[in-house]
Amino acid sequence: MEEVKISFLGFGNVGTGAYKIIRDNGKDILLSEGVGLKVAKILVRDINKKRDIELEHSILTDKFEEIANDPEISIVAEFMGGVEPAKDYIVSCLMNKKTVVTANKELIAKHGLELQTVARENGVGLYYEASVAGGVPVIKILAESLQANKIGEIMGIINGTTNYILTKMSEEGRDFSDVLSEAQKLGFAEPDPTADIEGFDAMYKICILSSMAFHKRVDVNNIYREGITKITTEDIEYGRELGFAIRLLAIAKKRNNTVEVRVHPTFIPVDHPLAAVRHSFNAVFLKGDAVGNIMLYGKGAGDLPTGSAIVSDIITAYHQRSKHRYISFYNDEGSAEKLKFNDDWESEFFVRLTVKDKPGVLAKIAGYFGKYGVSIASVIQKDRGKDAVPLIFVTHLAKELSMKKAISDIAKEEDVLMVENIIPVER
Length: 427
Hints:
The chain is of the alpha/beta class. It has helices at residues 13-33, 65-68, 86-95, 105-121, 138-145, 160-172, 176-186, 194-197, 200-214, 233-241, 303-319, 361-371, 400-412; strands at 2-9, 35-43, 60-61, 73-78, 99-102, 126-127, 151-157, 224-225, 244-255, 258-269, 281-288, 292-299, 340-341, 346-356, 376-381, 388-395, 398-399, 416-425.
């Protein structure tokens, strides 16, 4: 039996979960994996802070150098989040011949390739299963189980906060601000929820997944992002009438050398597998040329699910210590010149307008759509006889930029009082 000394950078919710797993499941890990895991040092801001978990005071430190310069510590787990100082600390650990395990999706999305290069140069590993979908092992599936496939599509619910909010809005008819407040009280949403509700969290995660799946460096600046703050109960109700459920989806598609990556609220058919993913759960739908369609489902956040992914990576790092595996890219220094990022992606669209109830309005709007090659699949008009009425369209497949041009013209039409929302539809 070999004992491996580990250090934690940070000790928040996920770090505490990982510590509990090592403490409570350590004997089982020893029996099944042949390795004893010992947390030797934990970097914290305040070593005297009262904590909800019993710890030996001696393992706490507020000096990073005690970890970086300790030759007995071979694996470091980072829980700090954000780019700095986490990046500097990780680089220092890698250069001091320590393998790093992290749940930091922003750092990996923005600097993962750079960090992997430092790890490779120093003969150590960089593992980040916990950075996407918590306890759902999607990164290991891509790296170790689907190598025989060319992945053509990823579509997933990879942010539990927004899925919780949209589930509550859909099932209970409550408005966005009310459910967000509840989610914050329950701990599903942060006091500052911007990263979740504006789609940044999901953007970082789909950046990581698409880079891995397509073996192409996907830059976050090439990802279309839109959050859920504009979604209303009216949108959800009209969508339901049309047979749709709404989710914040992260979508990545590759066709030859063209890649599109986007995050936005999306209507999907109620019988789509992702429509059944409720509350704070995550799911990732993968399409491979050989294996076909696969969906992975589970808890995407929380101390124990994400801690489980961290501990799994620690064990993997131990077993691969003589030969670490690194994600391969066809274009190590950035996006390959021949790789095209598509900013004019194709989708069906749900369009909700408020218009004057008078003859000829529908024909005018249809004319604007037709001008830019947007074909209408269905129309719903409500509340006839009122001065202002809702008018809902679902289009056939249309280019996103053509839709924007059509909506720009429609918004200027005097009989159109408001363009309420435009939501892509995926099937």
